[in-house]
Amino acid sequence: MKKRTSILSLAFTSLLAAALIAGCGTGNQPQAGAGQEQPAGQEQAAGQEGQAGEKKTLIMATSADYKPYEYHDLTSGKDEIVGFDIDIANYIAKELGYEIQITDMDFGGLVPALQTNRADFVMAGMTPTPDRQKNVDFSDIYYEAKNTIVSKKDSNLTKPEQLAGKKIAVQLGSIQEEAAKELEKTVQGLQVTSLNKLGEIVEEVKTGRVDAAIIEDTVAKGFVASNPTLQFTTIESNETNGSAIAFPKGSPHVEKFNEVIKKMQENGEMDKLIQKWFAQ
Ligand code: ARG
């Protein structure tokens, strides 16, 4: 609290200073514009200091390689990040009176972005694991997925034990990477390659540079649908990977976000979005 106050007053002071230096007019500039070149922490502070009626801005970090959770949509002629997570984020923001600014990065950079306050929250189909919980806070789970093996249709690679002596690709920093590292202990000769983007991983399987990939069913389904030479098979396990929203440790937003998630589950909005993005 103490720290925040000082950041706020610092932001306010520098705003005043900027107005003085630049002369008349500057003080009336919209702050969101000014904030765009600033790191998230400062921008948030600037946003909260905003004049009455002005929307506050939250920075959402994501890894937009995860259709249908979040991906780059180019169909309208411009590059837009869309998806299930984006719709949920927008709904929550609207309910709570925030503007959202999305920043796209590699999945492995998301938790560090929260730890250094470069983002106010992360939505990236991210699973709350005990390890991550040491570094960030999570909302309640809003959707679930299971791991699958994605391979070439003719490969006969559908079960973990068939991966002996094979190469597999997983996303860097994901729980699929963890699962692969775990498999390495029991599956002889398994070689794991970690890559930044889901698209690269699928490409590696398609070209045969790796034999298979571990990808969540919710995402594998779409990749396989658009790549007819591929197949995916769910890995038998009692485990499901929930998706939750991640926040910097001690973030004041967790509770409010949870309230809106609950509301969306009760008023049918969540089901509507699940239908929109996952039913094919
Ligand atoms: N649920 C998995 C995890 O938390 C994978 C999420 C990958 N998300 C993404 N946007 N690429 O590790």
Automatic annotation (TrEMBL):
Domain Solute-binding protein family 3/N-terminal: 57-279
Chain positions covered by the region annotation Disordered: 29-54
Pfam families to which the protein is assigned, alphabetical: SBP_bac_3
Molecular function terms from GO: ligand-gated monoatomic ion channel activity
Biased composition (Low complexity): 29-51
This protein's GO CC annotations: cell envelope; membrane
Keywords: Signal
Record localization: Cell envelope
Family named by the database record: Belongs to the bacterial solute-binding protein 3 family.
Identification of the protein by name: ABC transporter substrate-binding protein
Species for this entry: Brevibacillus gelatini
Organism lineage string: Bacteria, Bacillati, Bacillota, Bacilli, Bacillales
